[in-house]
């Protein structure tokens, strides 16, 4: 029974750490989006991306659905924004 509790605690700890890392990444992505999104439509256009050379150079890669805009989901999924 003691081993079961230890395994459960370790497993829950891993899940909590992964959740915290996900929230931290999202908040950094949100900060970048808020900074670049001049018209406050929740998206980064190519023109808005000119304010950040890294985002600009990778724009076509980050814009996964090829709609000409980068959403928060695309920015977060790109893993381009680091802590």
UniProtKB/TrEMBL annotation:
Segments forming domain EF-hand: 50-83
Pfam family for this entry, one: EF-hand_5
InterPro entries cross-referenced by the UniProt entry: EF-hand-dom_pair, EF_Hand_1_Ca_BS, EF_hand_dom
GO molecular function: calcium ion binding
Name of this protein: EF-hand domain-containing protein
Organism in which the protein naturally occurs: Agaribacter marinus
Phylogenetic lineage: Bacteria, Pseudomonadati, Pseudomonadota, Gammaproteobacteria, Alteromonadales
